[in-house]
UniProtKB/TrEMBL annotation:
Chief location of this protein within or outside the cell: nucleus
Name recorded for this polypeptide: Anaphase-promoting complex subunit 11
Membrane-spanning residues: none
Compartments, as annotated in UniProt: Nucleus
Cited SUPFAM superfamilies: RING/U-box (SSF57850)
InterPro entries: RING-box_E3_Ubiquitin_Ligase, RING-H2_APC11, Znf_RING, Znf_RING/FYVE/PHD
Domain annotation RING-type: ranges: 25-79
Organism per entry: Tothia fuscella
Keywords, ordered alphabetically: Cell cycle, Cell division, Metal-binding, Mitosis, Nucleus, Ubl conjugation pathway, Zinc, Zinc-finger
Organism ancestry: Eukaryota, Fungi, Dikarya, Ascomycota, Pezizomycotina
Length: 87
């Protein structure tokens, strides 16, 4: 018996593997598995960055935040000095 596949429709889903229960960016308030305002598609173009304070943000969101003079290089959630975990 020979089988021929004439059409195939694939469906996929993904999520960031994050330890925290809160699954939205603290700056743009968009879900981690969606995009920040600067990106068209979620994924490698805008990875999540976690600070030593254990708060996570889209990469573009935290970079824009830290570049603002009034941020004083502090986490927008807890106001501790911002340092990327593992950096």
């Amino acid at each position: 018996m020979k089988v021929t596949i004439k059409q195939w429709n694939a469906v996929a889903t993904w999520r960031w593997d994050m330890a925290e229960d809160d699954d939205v960016c603290g700056i743009c308030r968009s879900a981690y598995d969606s995009t920040c305002s600067k990106c068209k598609y979620p994924g490698d173009e805008c990875p999540l960055l976690m600070g030593e304070c254990n708060h996570s943000f889209h990469m573009h969101c935290i970079i824009a935040w830290v570049r603002q003079e009034q941020s004083q290089d502090r986490c927008p959630m807890c106001r501790q000095p911002w340092k990327e975990k593992g950096a």
